[in-house]
Amino acid sequence: MSHSKITKEGSLEAPTRHPIAWQTEQYWDGKVLEKEMERVFDVCHGCRRCVSLCNTFPTLFDLIDESATFEVDGVDKADYKNVVDECYLCDICYMAKCPYVPPHEWNIDFPHLMLQAKAQNFKNNGTSVRNKILSSTDAVAKVASIPIVDVTVNAFNANKTFRKGLEKVAGIHHEAVVPKYHSNTLRKRVKNLDRNIEPTALGRTKGKVALYATCYGNYNSPELGDDFYKVFQHNNIHIEMVPKEKCCGMPKLELGDLESVKQAKEANIPILAKLVDQGYDLIAPIPSCVLMYKQELPLMFPDDEDVIKVQKAFFDPFEYLHLRHKKDGFNTDFKNPQGDVSYQVACHLRVQNIGLKTKDILSLIPDTTVVALERCSGHDGTYAVKKETHKTAVKIARPVVRKVDAQEPDHFISDCPMAANHVANLSSKVDKAEHPMTLLRQAYGL
Question: What pLDDT shows up at residue 3?
Answer without folding.
Answer: 44
